[in-house]
Design goal:
The structure is a single chain. With 248 residues, this protein is α/β, with parallel strands linked by helices. The chain contains eight helices and 14 strands. Strands 1, 4, 5, 6, 8, 9, 10, 11, 12 and 13 form a ten-stranded mixed β-sheet that branches. Strands 2-3 form a two-stranded antiparallel sheet.
């Protein structure tokens, strides 16, 4: 059994003026709200209980969810103060319960096989599995040859890694970008609670970088033929809109 979580709380400042009066999660993609597309992909993957976090124009999201046929599958985690990805997950743990959680940013549109990713997570006995790829970016996660997280790198030359890692683990590491979809097992929940108090704002990537010292944080490379769009930027939203207008 697996729970889902959709990060839908952000401001979406790069999508102004839309986000001056709407939540980013409801931006239309191919004529349908982004949130709807993510929810329905999770349901299709067999995830029938989904936590959605809210903050910016939260009322609009709550009303929208209440109007959908899948409303009964949704639980709201409202954040009076925006908590970022790590803080948002930390706050939602009581709603997630004692099951692994598949987390999906509301502004990521992708047709990857979520069931295949879930199967890989279980077969790897991973504590967390991150969807990754080799696209251009200013920030990279570093993974050992076997696919476990060992550090973080910025293209300005700043390399940040846990002190306990041997030098050869970094020297032979492969660089990957995080694609906004990840799975977290219950084995990390205790560490997440210890990492910061409830209602603390922090990035999930910062947590993963620390947890990777003692836990198996795996990469899951996105298949080359899979579609992936970060619709948080106007140009990629336009590309996603064009693609999804001509698909279901």
């Amino acid at each position: 059994m697996m729970t889902g979580m959709i990060f839908a709380a952000g401001y979406g400042t790069r999508l102004k003026p839309w986000t001056d009066s709407h939540p980013k999660a409801l931006v239309p993609v191919g004529g349908r709200p982004a949130l709807d597309r993510v929810v329905e992909r999770m349901l299709d993957a067999g995830i029938d209980r989904i936590v959605v976090n809210t903050h910016h124009f939260a009322g609009q999201i709550h009303e929208h969810i209440a109007s959908r046929p899948w409303a009964g599958h949704i639980v709201i985690s409202h954040e009076p103060e925006l908590l970022d990805t790590g803080g948002g997950l930390r706050k939602a743990l009581p709603l997630i319960g004692d099951s692994p959680v598949l987390i999906h940013n509301a502004d990521i549109m992708t047709d990857i096989d979520l069931r295949a990713m879930i199967d890989a997570h279980h077969s790897l006995h991973a504590d967390a599995t991150l969807l990754t790829d080799c696209r251009a970016s200013a920030r990279f996660l570093l993974f050992r040859a076997e696919g476990t997280l060992c550090g973080y790198y910025r293209t300005d030359g700043t390399r940040m890694t846990p002190d306990r890692l041997p030098a050869d683990a970094i020297r032979n590491a492969k660089a990957r970008c995080f694609d906004g979809v990840h799975i977290v097992s219950q084995s990390l929940y205790g560490d997440l609670r210890k990492y910061a108090p409830d209602d603390t704002k922090f990035s999930i990537i910062d947590f993963y970088r620390e947890a990777g010292i003692d836990h198996r944080i795996h990469c899951y490379d996105r298949p080359a033929d899979a579609r992936w769009y970060d619709i948080g930027r106007p140009e990629t939203l336009a590309a996603a809109d064009t693609y999804y207008t001509h698909t279901r």
